[in-house]
Design goal:
about 425 residues, hpI Integrase, Chain A, three-stranded antiparallel sheet, 18 helices, about 5% strand, disordered N terminus, DNA_brk_join_enz, Phage integrase family protein
Length: about 425
């Protein structure tokens, strides 16, 4: 029995035991130099048949204990589950352990190694369920997804793998930007509807197609559902009925003049909405710009120090919806006063497609949507309706909105001064 590199069994009392030296890898978590592992039999033949499996289980338990020293909550939790299984138990949290019959609790306690009468803390945590279940956020779910969905990447080239990963990373990034990096267990139906609303606003603004929005929803759902299933979380994820019909573009109803005047512009109505989002909302009332157009404004495109204060919708590092979208819009009324507060633009939203989601969530939470189908984008439609009711020429309306004219455009159109006079008549 001098060679501890091979399987060695010997009787201790009535039963056979496996005796082996502890590998160097596990010295930090195993104080014994040599271990004796009971094979629970008095038959040498049976003992030899069980020895390999017993040693494998010992190695598995040591590996789990090593992982249990990790600073990563996910790794510690997985290690506790593995260690409990290696000891012949199912991992249960402390609350569930406390509800077990007393004899089963005693069995778990007695299974905890206690060299020098000091119970091993890692083993105790695994068998008594005191390792907290990790909080899996949306970004953590994506990290876990790459391993859990490994079979989907088999055989892919480096370029194929990059193209497979990119839309999933994009979907998670978009969700976090709109809703936040929530724990997936705490994602609500309202969160998913806010995310859907974000995409609907972008579809309506012509920034993306319904197909692009659906792909984002599908990839996000794939990540969350895979983690939920493979990690056996048992969550009921609110992912149903979110997709858009291909080619369908829902038009938002306009805010009525009365609603804008008495509700949106009521004293204190927008308190609680951050200042930049508030200014962009007010700026939209008398300009009808698309939310992303307002968010993209800069010191160069906000022109206050001139005879007719105005904004200029330009490409400036981003692609416009069409060449008709390039235009100037006079600033009047509450819109002028709001934009004056931010002459340099709106850096909080300039490179992030989150403005509509933030505003819509605030309006919904504060009862400021005229109907459930209204959204921030309804301010654009409301501005158009007011111009139409005031009899403003179709060419001027289309020029202000960045729409195509269904006939040839002759001349330069109305002067900025003339357009400003017309808009001032309908402005709040």
């Amino acid at each position: 029995m001098g060679d501890f590199s091979a399987i060695s069994i010997a009787k201790r009392g009535r039963l056979y035991h496996l005796r082996r030296r502890v590998p160097r890898r596990y010295r930090s978590i195993e104080p014994r130099e040599t271990v004796w592992i009971s094979l629970h039999t008095d038959s040498e033949t049976v003992a030899r048949s069980k020895a390999d499996r017993a040693w494998s289980q010992m190695i598995e338990a040591w590996e789990a204990r090593l992982a249990g020293n990790s600073a990563d909550a996910e790794a510690r939790y997985e290690a506790a589950r593995d260690l409990a299984r290696a000891r012949g138990f199912r991992y249960l949290d402390a609350g569930a352990v406390a509800k077990l019959p007393i004899e089963e609790v005693v069995e778990r306690v007695e299974a905890i190694p206690a060299p020098a009468n000091q119970p091993d803390a890692i083993e105790a945590a695994a068998l008594l369920g005191t390792v907290p279940e990790p909080r899996i956020t949306v970004t953590k779910a994506l990290e876990l997804y790459w391993t859990l969905a490994k079979e989907k990447t088999l055989g892919k080239s480096e370029d194929q793998l990059r193209r497979w990963e990119a839309p999933r990373k994009k979907a998670v990034k978009n969700f976090v930007a709109v809703v936040g990096n929530k724990e997936i267990a705490n994602i609500t139906r309202d969160d998913m509807l806010d995310f859907r609303q974000h995409w609907l606003d972008r579809i309506e603004a012509g920034e993306v197609t319904a197909n692009s929005a659906n792909k984002d929803l599908i990839h996000l759902g794939d990540v969350l559902k895979t983690v939920n299933t493979m990690k056996r979380l048992g969550l009921s994820l609110p992912l149903g009925e979110l997709s858009f019909k291909e080619g369908e573009k829902q038009t938002r109803p306009p805010f009525s003049e009365d609603w804008i005047r008495t509700r949106l512009l009521a004293p204190g109505a927008l308190d609680g909405l951050n200042w930049q989002a508030r200014a962009l909302l007010l700026g939209m009332i008398n300009t009808g710009y698309r939310p992303f157009e307002g968010a993209a404004l800069t010191a160069d495109t906000i022109r206050l120090d001139c005879d007719v204060p105005h904004i200029s919708i330009e490409a400036e590092g981003r692609q416009l919806k069409s060449h008709y979208a390039r235009r100037v819009i006079p600033l009047t009324g509450v819109s002028l006063e709001a934009i004056k507060q931010f002459p340099e633009g709106f850096p909080r939203y300039r490179d992030r497609a989150t403005l509509s989601a933030v505003v819509n969530k605030f309006l919904r939470a504060n009862g400021l949507l005229e109907t459930p189908r209204h959204s921030m984008y309804s301010l654009r439609h409301g501005f158009e309706d007011r111009m139409l009711a005031a009899g403003i020429d179709d060419r001027i309306r289309r020029d202000l909105f960045g729409h195509r004219l269904d006939r040839e455009r002759y001349g330069k159109g109305a002067s900025l001064e003339h357009v400003a006079t017309l808009v001032a008549r309908i402005a709040f």
